[in-house]
């Protein structure tokens, strides 16, 4: 069975109460349940980890060899963590960057993603739909690889 790791970065544990006008009213558990349901339907194993600590996220990325993909919302680390960028670049596991809000329409310091150059792609601005779009891309890609005998 293919496995996917979803990594949630700093402050995402506060979803539902933290600036709902920007991040929406869904909690992190709501998002995880939505993803779990879609993964179950596709026959894919999915794991979740949230951390407010950069080192925890780096270690999870470094230990990701058992996973087919990582979906990563790095939160504020997106904009300045060269260490997180280097961890992504150092592993074979493809990473899809997601954000609930459109980082390109926010404060200037949020417009730049230092991890974008080393990820497969970036999905932002769709709320929880950013996560589900990433998951659906992965499911489609994995099914395509299976049908091609990979």
TrEMBL record:
Binding annotation for substrate: 73, 79, 86, 100-101, 110
Active site: 23, 99
Xref: PROSITE patterns: DEHYDROQUINASE_II
Pfam families: DHquinase_II (PF01220)
A GO molecular-function descriptor: 3-dehydroquinate dehydratase activity
Site location (Transition state stabilizer): 18
Major enzyme class: lyase
Key word Acetylation present: no
Pathway: Metabolic intermediate biosynthesis; chorismate biosynthesis; chorismate from D-erythrose 4-phosphate and phosphoenolpyruvate: step 3/7
GO BP term, example: quinate catabolic process
Protein purpose: Catalyzes a trans-dehydration via an enolate intermediate.
Record note on quaternary structure: Homododecamer.
Family membership noted in the UniProt record: Belongs to the type-II 3-dehydroquinase family.
Protein name: 3-dehydroquinate dehydratase
Classification lineage: Bacteria, Bacillati, Bacillota, Negativicutes, Selenomonadales
